Amino acid sequence: MAMKRLNYFKGEFLNKDDFEEEQNYHVDMLRKHNENLHKGGIAAGLEVPETFEDGTAVIGGTDLLIKRGTAIDDSGRQIVLTEDKRITASTIIPAGSIQATFYLIIYYHEEPTDPREDNPGKLENSRVKEEPVITFVEVLQANDPKKPLILATVTLDSNKKITKIDINGRKYASSRIADRSITSIKIDSGAVKKEHLNIDIFNNLLSSPDGTIGIQVDSPNKIIKLTSQVATGVVEFSGFTPSVKNVSGLIDPGFGPGPISVIMGLDETHTSNKQVFIGASEASGFFNLPDVLLGALVDTSTGNFRVGMRVNGTATSPIRVRWWAFKPGQDKGTLVVVSVSIDPFNPSLRPGRTLQFEANVTGTGNKAVDWSVQETDGGSITNTGLYTAPITPGTYHVIATSHADATKSGMTSVAVTEDITVSIAPATARVFAGDQQQFKASVTGSSNPGVTWSVKETKGGTIDNTGLYTAPAIAGTYTVVATSKADNTKTATAQVEVQPKVAVTISPAEVNLFSGKQQQFKANVTGSADTGVIWSVQEGSGGGTIDGTGLYTAPSGIIRVLEPIMAPSISEPRLSPIVTGTGLTPITPPTTIITPITPVLSPGIIGTYHVVATSKADPTKTAVAIVTVTMASVSISPAQVTMLPGRTQKFTATVLGVPDTRVNWSTTGGTIDATGLYTAPVTPGTYQVAATSVADSTKTATSSVTVTPGISVSINPASTTVEINKGVQFRANVTGTTNTAVTWRVQETNGGSINTTGLYISPGTPGTYHVVATSVADTTRTATSTVTVTSIKTDLEKLIEKAKDTDKIAKELEKAKDADKTAEKLAKEIETGGGITPIINPGPIMSPEGGSTFDGVTNGRAFIRPEERPDIGTITQPK
User: Which of 97, 254, 352, 397 allows an S-S link to 374, with CB 3.0 to 4.6 Å?
Assistant: First the structure.
């Protein structure tokens, strides 16, 4: 299948996918190149030194230093650490781990970053950050998709301080070169010790323009021949001890099982007078190599090897060793030696536990080893490699020494940690269905106190990560389990007895009672064989009493009398009359002080109380009934009323304090029905209407009804005659009510007008009209006066009428003079009055002052008192 890459042309429309495809193409091609031409590993840098740049020791501290560098993983991804990184070891320990020794690994990681809001309301990441992850792991997983690389093996003490850094497990990147023709190049290195050649020489060999590849050594002639199938890489040794063997981690050159040859050279340049030549070319720079012994420990069963190094004397640290591995046809200068490795490597174990070790011996057909423990009290191991840990926690070392070469051995550390124990409190519990119980776990023998909570039975309830257990709805015995996070083989259990949940109810749940009355309550208990309850009143004895059967008695309606209220001073009213008279002694009564005595109900009687039923099986379960204790009261509206005989009035009764608000109606006069509709009797008088509570017949309210005589209205004058456009004053007389007010009106539309005082003005048209007075107290009561309106009389007609009236009066006076006794008697009566005594009102007579009325006599003589009359003009009194 062909590969495609983007081909741009002028005017092409490009979108996001095009640019991403361009990037992906180049990234994929680079990774395919790395994957196919290189074996994954560290390419440069990424050292884990034992000292910081300021000279401070890493060992004994809490922080690690990882130097900047580059690596390639087995997927061809480049791992680049752009700057030195300092990490606190305790922050990268796997959660729940109890081990003391960890693999420090690095792996490729990328994540989107730099968000931008180019589209409103939508964030998009504009960059992809490639930053490696550095962390601890307990075990290296096969086929891990992250493809991690080992930087070092780190051992920590119980305080999380670093005690050891082992870089022997580091894997370095190597090169794969395809087969080509074989040629030879002679290299004269002069007096180079042990034939360890400068790294620059071999780099030039691998990149020679003549197409030569591969390496083979002819040691006596100092000739290196190029062969097929070559891999190369670098191993770094730091913190080594002079004159002691140092072994690298396992290296896989990628050839598969079988024998391989390895050539090694020091990647170190020193000033010297020696030069190295490759053909006619001169290598740049000078070198002077330290006295170093190098060896390759090859495992032919896997095709893997380790680089061994021993420095005789002192040398600069670190020392980098470049290696070349190849499949030999005939290796005259082989450097393969015996090596021993132990599996498992750096395990952890509990005190007294056993562990089977296996020794891997390469470089010889004799695979036998002798097993031993370095520390005297570090436990024991059999000749088959079965190790038994000591009782005392600590770090110990198991050694396997080759029978073929006693100078060759392998060693691994064993971390013996305190045995973990788990306990739960409480160990047993009893809860009701649906209730909760808090459990707590205690973990000893580990720095990780965490546990995982669970319930053994499928339907045994639930428990959260804090140990809070919730019982199921079904009764039974269940098991709560706490499992140590440090060691999931360590558990503790607690037994939980779940009982049916007790529930209590009271019947009736709410009741209204009068003071002193009784109510029988009943309790129903479920969820327990013991259905007994204890009865009580929440408010104590003040809230009533209840016996063992649930019979409740409301508090009694005790009456108490308030203390007399003495007014400090009362100015009015005072009863202080003084009585005097002939033969009497004056008496002055003392000032009266009002001392009210008012009976009232005790405030502890009326109110709301609570009857409580408490389960005997579970005293935390109760039920409460509400008791409202009341005193009935009745009121009537209206409280008093005045009405006419035979009329009706609707009364309303309000009953408080009892649920039954019905009343019985009664009256001392008249009739009233069940709805409160009252009919007044015919006979006037004062009567009582009563409403009596049906619930409590001792509670009654009354209303006073005053029945008055029937209202009557009369008008004075009852009839009159008046000229057009003249005025007449009417007066109304109302009886049968205290309200004597009337409203005035003219019956006919054009019959004139009348104001609120009864002053009538006749219309301009003669005729007969009617003035009506209506009682305000009873609008059905009216009186009517007939008004005859005539046309205007001439002056002569009026004068004649006046003359007739005057002549009539004169005749009457003459009769009075003839009756002396009568006149004298009249005169005396008038004189006794001391003024003018009205005797008649004959109507108007002529007067120069205007209208007048003859209304009195004095000493037998009549006087004329002028009176303004709107219906009389100014006339001259006759002589």
Answer: 397
